[in-house]
Amino acid sequence: RFPEDSQVRVLEIGRGRDRLGNEHPQIEVSFPPLTSVTGGDRAHDYSVRMEMRIGDVVRTVDEKRVFSNKFMSAECDDTEEVRCRFARSQVPRERPVRFVVTPFNCWLKAGKSVVSQWMKFEDASKS
């Protein structure tokens, strides 16, 4: 599980590069890696979900599975924030969204999630 004070940070990036090297606006989600130093088992990987709220309904818009930068290294070296990026064009316009990070151990058992605050991103085409 994540420590009680763990936070999901969300940053809007004007021009980020995708895997093909193309530049486009992105949303970066970052969070601390989960290790035994933080009070639990080391996470093998993480699920990062973008959720949208419509009235009292919460719907998953997109989900990615990510590893920490040092997941192949010794646990004591796995200290850098984990980062995951979503294309800005995939974020619902003018709707409340949040990001939910769930750790998984090497046996695919899910741990306790950490969640960002609800936020709205302005329509990028209006800028």
Structural description of this entry:
By secondary structure, this protein is mainly beta. It is built from no helices and 7 strands. β1 and β2 (23-31) form a beta hairpin. The radius of gyration is 15 Å and the shape is globular. It starts with 8 loop residues before the first strand and ends in a 12-residue tail after the last strand. The model has no long low-confidence stretch (mean pLDDT 88).
What are the defining features of this structure?
127 residues, mainly beta, four-stranded antiparallel β-sheet, 7 strands, 0% helix, globular
Question: How are the SSEs ordered, and which strands pair?
Answer:
Layout: E1 9-17, E2 23-31, E3 45-54, E4 57-66, E5 82-87, E6 97-104, E7 114-115
Antiparallel strand pairs: 1-2, 2-5, 3-4, 3-6, 6-7
Mean pLDDT: 88
Give the strand order of the largest sheet, numbering strands 1, 2, ... along the chain. Answer: 4-3-6-7
Largest sheet: 4 strands, antiparallel
End-to-end Cα distance: 39 Å
Strand percent estimate: 35-45%
Low-confidence stretches: none
Count of individual beta strands: 7
SSE class: mainly beta
